[in-house]
């Protein structure tokens, strides 16, 4: 247990062997699956429920744990902790794992054991802060695979359908995280999906799909253009609808957010240095429209309230949404400093300084010239009885939709605010008067 970050009070994962008894284990949860139900063979007509998670106590050692039991017990246990939290497990059953069967559907682990949690004998609890060494918490930033063992997005695209069905590792930055969408299958089972757009030095956009609640929950915490992920064991597939390759999170997958590796840090520096020319800079409203359900935005604010809220959130990356009843006080399409139209490369989507300029991103890898696309980019001021919001971004077809604002903290924008209009339409005076008087106003929601 020389490399374990657990204290002598606990048994190190490296020291586990089948049928050990009276154990106490500590580790950080690095991944987790959804709760699932299966027909109980011993009791016809009833179900048994299960979920699993992977915990780690050192750079070299991590183990899979599973819990089986009644729906109430399993759901309660699953809800008691999240990925990234440290837990203490007492009295687990140590079993020898069935290598070929289990690693086909579960994350591959270095040892030959697995943990089974019993409703009657085992306990799991989240650690208090004084019980956890900082080195143990830092393990959440360490990929389970060798840091250089990955495909770039360009490699995946270049290999094309030869990678269809393959399970590989991917290092990429997060371009956008879509809104989770629920669906019902033909046999009436409920499901969900969430599309994440990735990018790196080689590709401007690549789709990864999450199918389970736990991975979607993790994905919702990712900050676009500020988060790097190392996705271990994702399945690569050819999407006939998109006519492109995509990655899918599966039961074997473990995703490390912001990996503390040389390669991860290089990519992180790349996305920071290229924020100004990232394809999202002129399409942030398009991303927001895809990732936020406009019908779910019910919070009503005045300009003054928005400014106060933004000041309270300064330094935080998460945006919030709200409805603002105001009038457009400035729409300057004639000023020399206003760029009403932006030129974009049709190949990679990056903003080009002039219509005739050559895209510096594409030209490095191809001699074929790319066409130039035009896209609207307007800055407007909106004013109500409490004040004015300056330099709000109004692009594309957003002005034809219902009114909604998303506020971003940004040191480059005036007053530390970055405002994107998600939709804009004439307000009903009766509705505006009712909402502004306080009726229907709720606490703000983060988006």
From TrEMBL:
One BP annotation, GO: resolution of meiotic recombination intermediates
Listed Gene3D superfamilies: Nucleic acid-binding proteins
Major location category of this protein: nucleus
The MEIOB-like N-terminal domain, residue ranges: 7-145
Subcellular location(s) of the protein: Chromosome; Cytoplasm; Nucleus
Cross-referenced InterPro entries: MEIOB (IPR052469), NA-bd_OB-fold (IPR012340), OB_MEIOB_N (IPR056880)
SUPFAM superfamilies given in the database record: Nucleic acid-binding proteins (SSF50249)
Taxonomy, superkingdom: Eukaryota
GO molecular function: single-stranded DNA 3'-5' DNA exonuclease activity; single-stranded DNA binding
SUBUNIT field: Component of a multiprotein complex with RPA2 and SPATA22. Interacts with SPATA22. Interacts with the complex BRME1:HSF2BP:BRCA2.
Family the UniProt entry places it in: Belongs to the MEIOB family.
Function noted in UniProt: Single-stranded DNA-binding protein required for homologous recombination in meiosis I. Required for double strand breaks (DSBs) repair and crossover formation and promotion of faithful and complete synapsis. Not required for the initial loading of recombinases but required to maintain a proper number of RAD51 and DMC1 foci after the zygotene stage. May act by ensuring the stabilization of recombinases, which is required for successful homology search and meiotic recombination. Displays Single-stranded DNA 3'-5' exonuclease activity in vitro.
Descriptive protein name: Meiosis-specific with OB domain-containing protein
Organism phylogeny: Eukaryota, Metazoa, Chordata, Craniata, Vertebrata
């Amino acid at each position: 247990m020389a490399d374990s970050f657990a204290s002598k009070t606990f048994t190190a994962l490296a020291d586990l062997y089948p049928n050990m008894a009276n154990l106490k284990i500590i580790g950080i949860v690095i991944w987790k699956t959804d709760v699932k139900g299966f027909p109980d063979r011993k009791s016809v007509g009833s179900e048994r429920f299960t979920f699993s998670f992977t915990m780690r106590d050192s750079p070299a050692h991590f183990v899979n744990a599973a819990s089986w039991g009644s729906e109430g017990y399993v759901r309660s246990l699953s809800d008691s902790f999240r990925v990234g939290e440290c837990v203490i497990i007492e009295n687990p059953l140590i079993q020898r794992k069935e290598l070929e069967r289990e690693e086909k559907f579960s994350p591959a682990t270095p040892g030959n054991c697995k943990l089974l949690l019993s409703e009657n004998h085992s306990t799991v609890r989240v650690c208090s802060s004084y019980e956890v060494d900082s080195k143990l918490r830092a393990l959440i930033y360490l990929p389970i695979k060798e840091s250089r063992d990955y495909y770039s997005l360009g490699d995946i695209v270049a290999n094309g359908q030869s990678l269809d069905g393959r399970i590989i590792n991917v290092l990429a930055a997060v371009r956008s995280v879509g809104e989770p969408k629920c669906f019902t299958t033909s046999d009436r089972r409920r499901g969900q999906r969430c599309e994440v757009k990735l990018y790196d030095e080689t590709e401007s956009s690549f789709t990864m799909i999450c199918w389970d609640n736990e991975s979607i929950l993790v994905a919702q915490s990712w900050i676009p253009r500020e988060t790097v992920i190392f996705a271990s064991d994702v399945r690569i597939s050819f999407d006939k609808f998109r006519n492109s390759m995509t990655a899918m999170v599966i039961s074997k997958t473990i995703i490390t957010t912001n990996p503390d590796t040389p390669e991860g840090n290089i990519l992180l520096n790349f996305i920071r240095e290229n924020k100004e020319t990232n394809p999202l800079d002129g399409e942030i409203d398009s991303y927001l429209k895809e990732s936020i359900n406009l019908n779910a935005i019910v919070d009503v604010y005045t300009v003054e309230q928005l400014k106060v809220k933004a000041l309270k959130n300064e330094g935080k990356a998460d945006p919030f949404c709200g409805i603002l009843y105001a009038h457009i006080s400035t729409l300057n399409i004639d000023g020399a400093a206003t760029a009403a139209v932006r030129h974009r490369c049709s190949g990679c989507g990056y903003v080009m300084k002039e219509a005739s300029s050559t895209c510096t991103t594409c030209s490095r890898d191809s001699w074929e010239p790319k066409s130039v696309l035009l896209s609207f980019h307007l800055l407007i001021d909106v004013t109500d009885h409490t004040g004015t919001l300056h330099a709000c971004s109004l692009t594309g077809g957003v002005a034809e939709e219902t009114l909604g604002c998303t506020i971003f903290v940004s040191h480059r924008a005036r007053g530390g605010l970055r405002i994107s209009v998600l939709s804009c339409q004439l307000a009903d005076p009766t509705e505006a008067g009712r909402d502004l008087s306080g009726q229907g106003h709720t606490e703000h929601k983060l988006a």
